[in-house]
Design brief:
The chain has about 400 residues and is an alpha/beta fold. The protein has helices spanning about 15-25, 50-55, 95, 105-120, 165-170, 250-255, 260-270, 300, 310-325, 330-360, 365-385, 390, and strands at about 5-10, 30, 45, 75-80, 85-90, 100-105, 125, 130-135, 140-145, 150-155, 155-160, 180-190, 205-210, 210-220, 225-230, 245-250, 275-280, 290, 295. Helices cover about 35% and strands about 25% of the residues. The strands form four sheets. An eight-stranded mixed sheet has the order 5-4-13-14-15-12-17-16. Strands 7-2-1-11-19-18 form a six-stranded mixed sheet. Strand 13 and strand 14 (about 210-220) form a beta hairpin. The longest helix has 30 residues, at about 330-360. The protein is globular, with a radius of gyration of 21 Å.
């Protein structure tokens, strides 16, 4: 191929998915990533049907076989006594939503996408290549790397995360900086044989309490249990920006769950170590592009994780981006317009719904009683119906 590529900044879930979708649309792609290798970092994530149907389309779903888990249900429990409030029958995902509902380790998903990237000769992955800047050209964009090298492309896609250099350079709105939500996610993986048998069952669980909640589910064939505890907590930039390497002191977390059901507290106490991840969000945008440069994933719509849609929405973005270039193969402007038209309203709706869900999860007192009464009243079918608008896309 002699045509200039689409340049993708970032080789996370969104960036790799975008590369595959663009290659399938007939585009040559160069992915630039600052890390020297695709790291085995992160923790579990939920892949709802709106994500897995796209992974299947890209021949990336089979690579998760034996590593991802398909939960039978997601149980919702009350933190103080463990009483079951509701359940979502995600085991019926294939028949209800047309694709499976899976949970997987982020590293396993990245490896599956990386394998799909490696199968496409039209994709070049450049590691240890940090974006340093770019400038628009008459026929596209010229990207500058920190090595001093330049790469010319027809477009630049910023899939470079919540602290996106591309978003910063676009200057789409004033005062546009990442904002700490006031919450931190404490994440861990616990060996399955270190916990009660109930935690090893192929079920997800969400525990709700005043000012905190807890999520857990088995991963990698049930060999480990992924646990996420979310609590309000101060955070300072002085504490660093490497979210995945900040180790949390277990006694601090355990004290936050004092008064919760013993099973939940025992699960928290079984963790060998905890990693703290401050939850940053960004303002919703009414446009994601300027000229030949566009945003994707967290760079476009970083959201709270309370609908478990971060990875899924990046995957949806990638699919829509590929569709835009397939529809307008010779016109970058129209391809990006089609991408935005398909994605902005939906991503913004999910971004806002995620923030609202977090407030609901952390209710206390009479408001929590009202929430629990409503969950019990609508039953499993009502809980599933509440997710239809997300999962059927």
């Amino acid at each position: 191929m002699t045509d200039k590529p689409v340049i993708v900044a970032g080789a996370g879930v969104g960036g790799l998915a975008a590369a595959v979708a663009l290659a399938k649309a007939g585009k040559r792609v160069v992915v630039v990533e600052r890390a020297p290798r695709l790291q085995e970092v992160g923790a579990g994530l939920q892949l709802s049907p709106n994500a897995t149907r796209r992974l299947a389309k890209w021949d990336a779903l089979d690579a998760l076989a034996g590593k991802a888990t398909a939960p039978e249900v997601v149980e919702i429990r009350r933190g103080r006594d463990g009483a079951k409030l509701a359940e979502i029958p995600v085991g019926e995902a294939l028949s209800r939503w047309g694709a499976p509902y899976l949970v997987a380790h982020r590293a396993d998903l990245l490896n599956a996408l990386a394998a799909a990237v490696a199968r496409h000769p039209a994709i070049e992955l450049r590691l240890a290549s940090a974006l340093d800047g770019w400038k628009a050209a008459d026929d596209g964009v010229v990207v500058h790397l920190d090595s001093g090298e330049t790469v010319a492309g027809v477009a630049l896609i910023g899939a470079d995360g919540v602290r996106s250099r591309v978003r910063e350079g676009l200057g789409l709105i004033d005062g546009d900086t990442p904002r700490f939500s006031g919450l931190t996610a404490w994440r861990t993986l616990i060996a399955a044989d270190a916990v009660e048998a109930r935690f090893r069952a192929p079920r997800g669980a969400l525990w709700l309490g005043s000012g905190a909640h807890l999520v857990h589910y088995p991963l990698r064939g049930g060999s480990v249990i992924n646990v996420v505890a979310i609590i309000p907590e101060p955070w300072s930039e002085r504490q660093g920006q490497d979210f995945w390497s900040s180790e949390g002191e277990a006694h601090i977390l355990i004290s936050r769950y004092d008064g919760w059901d013993k099973a939940a507290r025992d699960l928290i106490a079984a963790a060998p170590q905890w990693r703290r991840w401050p939850l940053f969000v960004r303002r919703a945008l009414t446009r994601w592009s300027r000229g030949p440069v566009a945003l994707l994933g967290d760079a476009a719509h970083a959201m709270a994780p309370f609908l478990a849609q971060g990875a899924a929405q990046a995957i949806e973005d990638a699919d829509a981006l590929g569709a835009g270039f397939a529809q307008h193969p010779g016109d970058v402007g129209k391809a990006l317009e089609a991408y935005e038209a398909r994605r902005i309203a939906r991503a913004t709706r999910i971004q806002r719904a995620s923030r609202m869900q977090g407030r609901v999860y952390h209710l206390g007192g009479p408001a929590a009683f009202a929430r629990e009464t409503a969950m019990r009243a609508i039953g499993p079918e009502g809980m599933a119906r509440a997710s239809d608008w997300i999962f059927r896309e």
